[in-house]
Amino acid sequence: MLCNTYLLEGAMSARTLPLGEVAHIVGQSTDPRSPRGGDMLEKALRDEADNLMLLCAQQHMEIDAKATLDVFTVEWLRRVKQEHEDRVRHLTALGPERATTVVRMVGSVHGNAVELSRETAADAVTAGRRFPLYLESYTRHGVEIDLRHTPGEQAAAGWDAESAAEASRHYYRQATKVIDDVVLNRLRPGIERESVQHVSVFGFARLPLLVYLGSLLDDTVPTDVYQRHRHEQSWVWSAESGPVTEFAAHPVRAGADEDEAVVVMNISGIIAPSEVPRELTALRRYEVSPVGTKAGPDILRCRASLQQMEKTLRTLLARLEREAKSLRRLHVLLAVPLSAAIALGRAHHPQVHPQLVIYERLAGSYMPTLEVGQVPG
């Protein structure tokens, strides 16, 4: 129960074996040698289900050891048992249509990393009334894109913007190969076999890579994107009854060039007009920003706010398709939460929309580092 080990299969033999042991919270006997046996619980109730836990052998031995009795108290064990049973009741109440395939992309953001384990993702999806489906071909970790060992993630201190941008472009060439391999060779076959009916996406990586991941996700499969909330240090979406943030995309500068345009996304912060690279200042420019509230890191507190963000992005791309049919490249400057970067990639259709050129702030300047989609012919 405590370690979530599967207790009906041997780890080495893969044979069906009954590996669980029944443990008493209050010791079965009132003898002083019986672990927690001195509790006031009536002896007749000590073999009832409310006083029993199913544990692996190692856990059973540990909670009953004399050296740990001050840690594994009656109150602590009862609380853990209740939490576990509540979780099992929640999961077993979910029908097969509530299954989801978990996709985790784990990387560093300029040297910083966060905990994004299989258990963290499972807790987030179960809180959202789904349960993680770990297909055999995906192992027990689901679909994992691990970028943490990709060389070149962090540019050397003191580099100028051009050198940092070139190093980043080299890093992105390696990282996108890793993403392609996992999505195209592991996730896509599951979708084609119809064994993947729903996807839950968790991503912690540099923003251009999150846009790229979003662009590869199949739009025909229902997909939930999760956001890490700084305030709670959690990936669980808050209650849907909370306030929903809306967003708007509006032109801020007219431009004569019909082939290229700029989109500035001021969501988690503000990119000042003076920060737009000089070579882009003459282009038509659009800004995406929240309506009626200030930009901030935790602006996407509920799932509905992210859905509003994606709707705004799709509306903007549709508008550009109508009004600027010759547009071939869209330069994008991002100040957005992680999930919004994935939403941008999902909203972009490589066969319909102009190529996205994703900029990143490096050494104090915004530089182009990754292109998503092909330049229309």
What percentage of amino acids are in beta strands? 15-25%
Overall helicity: 25-40%
Specify the number of helices.
7
The number of distinct structural domains comes to 3
Radius of gyration: 26 Å
Outline type: elongated
- Element order, helices and strands? EEHHEHEEHEHEEEEHEHEE
Give the terminus-to-terminus CA distance.
58 Å
Strand order of the largest sheet: 8-10-9-11-12-13
The mean pLDDT is 87
Q: Please identify the structural class as seen in this structure.
A: alpha/beta
How many individual β-strands? Answer: 13
Contiguous runs where pLDDT drops below 50 for at least 5 residues: none
Main β sheet profile: 6 strands, mixed
How are the secondary structure elements laid out?
Layout lengths: L20 E4 L27 E4 L1 H8 L9 H19 L6 E8 L11 H10 L3 E2 L10 E4 L14 H32 L6 E6 L2 H10 L6 E3 L20 E8 L6 E7 L17 E8 L11 H21 L5 E7 L2 H10 L7 E8 L2 E8 L5
Helix pairs in contact: 4-5, 5-7, 6-7
Structural commentary:
The protein has helices at 57-64, 74-92, 118-127, 161-192, 207-216, 303-323, 338-347, and strands at 21-24, 52-55, 99-106, 131-132, 143-146, 199-204, 223-225, 246-253, 260-266, 284-291, 329-335, 355-362, 365-372. The chain is an alpha/beta fold and 377 residues long. It has 3 domains: 21-92, no CATH class; 96-225, no CATH class; 246-372, no CATH class. The strands form 3 sheets. A 6-stranded mixed beta sheet has the order 8-10-9-11-12-13. Strands 3, 4, 5, 6 and 7 form a 5-stranded parallel beta sheet that branches. A two-stranded antiparallel ribbon has the order 1-2. β11, α7 and β12 (355-362) form a beta-alpha-beta unit. α6 packs parallel to α7 (338-347). The longest helix is centred in the middle third of the chain and has 32 residues, at 161-192. It starts with 20 loop residues before the first strand and ends in a 5-residue tail after the last strand. The model has no long low-confidence stretch (mean pLDDT 87). Residues 184-371 form the SMODS-associated and fused to various effectors domain. Pfam families: SAVED. Keywords: Coiled coil. It comes from Streptomyces genisteinicus. This is SAVED domain-containing protein.
